[in-house]
Design goal:
The complex is a heterodimer of chains A (about 120) and B (about 110).
Chain A: E1 4-7, E2 10-13, E3 19-25, E4 32-38, E5 45-51, E6 57-58, E7 67-73, E8 76-81, E9 90-97, E10 105-107, E11 111-115
Chain B: E1 4-7, E2 10-14, E3 19-25, E4 32-38, E5 45-51, E6 56-59, E7 62-67, E8 72-77, E9 86-93, E10 101-103, E11 107-112
Parallel strand pairs in B: 2-11
Antiparallel strand pairs in B: 1-3, 3-8, 4-5, 4-9, 6-7, 7-8, 9-10, 9-11
């Protein structure tokens, strides 16, 4: 079935630095990628929707200048957390839908970000 | 935008009994309702889904029902087993429009021996 590879699985960074998270669709073209954030014992909260070749659409309350999303190709979307702070520590996960197949959504394996 | 409410937040069930989780959604345009099981630190796993043109769907011990008029949908797990212990999320989506999945807050299911 469809696979989305997400890297890194875990990252620890210092406050003020930036971290890039990658999601690659391995055997299908992901025209749309969704980015979620999940705090401990909470639900997955949609941050933004990215479409290949266009600007991402951010959910209300999500800072687009802090969470930079790039979807430059049909198989790669990236999320960069800029100037990270401890409150950005969370589980970030991407999800993609294969266009036109009627299939469900495929999730990446998630990235555990810890900002110290 | 879409809002998905999920109840209960925690559910304890004796092994072998049935578990029911209920969700409501707000946007009548939603037409796809997946259910996910998530274990700690892992990605959500799709366990069953239902589309708005169907009222009920069953897959072995798992069934989902949908009431479009009331904007309710429910997950039913029968003959529960220890491996069913996990967090379950309902979700709603408008396929072929914005496609984004909005999740409920989750139900932590404990299967008691």
């Amino acid at each position: 079935g469809a696979v989305v590879s997400q890297h890194p699985s875990r990252v620890i960074c210092k406050s003020g630095t930036s971290v890039k998270i990658e999601c690659r669709s391995l055997d299908f073209q992901a025209t749309t990628m969704f980015w979620y954030r999940q705090f401990p014992k909470q639900s997955l909260m949609l941050m933004a929707t990215s479409n290949e070749g266009s600007k991402a659409t951010y959910e209300q309350g999500v800072e687009k200048d802090k969470f930079l999303i790039n979807h430059a190709s049909l198989t790669l979307s990236t999320l960069t957390v800029t100037s990270a702070h401890p409150e950005d520590s969370s589980f970030y996960i991407c999800s993609a839908r294969e266009e036109g197949t009627g299939q469900g959504y495929t999730f990446g394996s998630g990235t555990r970000l810890t900002v110290v | 935008g879409e809002n998905v409410e999920q109840h209960p937040s925690t559910l304890s069930v004796q092994e072998g009994d049935s578990a029911v989780i209920k969700c409501t959604y707000s946007d009548s345009a939603s037409n796809y309702f997946p259910w996910y099981k998530q274990e700690l630190g892992k990605r959500p796993q799709l366990i069953i889904d239902i589309r708005s043109n169907v009222g009920e769907k069953k897959d072995q011990r798992i069934a989902v029902t949908l009431n479009k008029t009331a904007k309710h949908f429910s997950l039913h797990i029968t003959e529960t087993q220890p491996e069913d212990s996990a967090v379950y999320f309902c979700a709603a989506s408008i396929r072929n429009r914005d496609d984004k999945i909005i999740f409920g807050k989750g139900t932590r299911l404990h299967i008691l021996p």
